[in-house]
Amino acid sequence: SRFEDTIPMKILFAVVLCLAPLQDANYFPLKKGSKWVYKNSTGKDGTYECAGPKTLWGEEHQIVNYLVEGALEVQTSYRVTRDGVRETGLNLAVVGEWEQRSTAELAMKFGTRKGDTWSYDEQQWKSTYTNEGEEEIEVPAGKYKAVKICKKDTGAMVLHEEVRSWYASGVGLVKREYVEKGKVSTTALKSYTEGK
Known about the structure:
Blueprint: H1 7-19, E1 35-40, E2 46-56, E3 59-68, E4 71-81, E5 84-92, E6 99-100, E7 106-109, E8 117-121, E9 125-139, E10 142-155, E11 162-168, E12 172-180, E13 183-193
Antiparallel strand pairs: 1-2, 1-13, 2-3, 3-4, 4-5, 5-6, 5-7, 8-9, 9-10, 10-11, 11-12, 12-13
């Protein structure tokens, strides 16, 4: 048999994959035209669509639209940098103008391994992210090997105590759990269409 197909080599490859740093932008793909449809605990499906680049605050950002039942609710801007994917701003449909985030948090930090943490301090809360390693999960769209990132917020202006997100390479977010006052609400991927 081939050398790489032997049991010891398979074990070695598995160990290397588990220890390898998270550095692939494919875990947070932002290709124009890509679309993700999610099943929400509320019973209403939510759709994210990558609208492509837009110049904001003197720099190019990738815009993602969030729609519920076809109606635009919010736009989020992201920048892919050397160290990861940063959430840089919001545009609520009811407001109609962009608001730049004072701290562009790394929603996905490249180069992290299982157990690594990173955090941000806002004026009225602190966010701490932890890479909890890879898990196999099943959602309506299918089974995925996904990296779990947990975000915990503390402070006076906290919407959710914890947000657990699972990202699969080549797809992006496949599942998210929001914890608020002990209750968990879930968003799970129903379908993903890559942009062309």
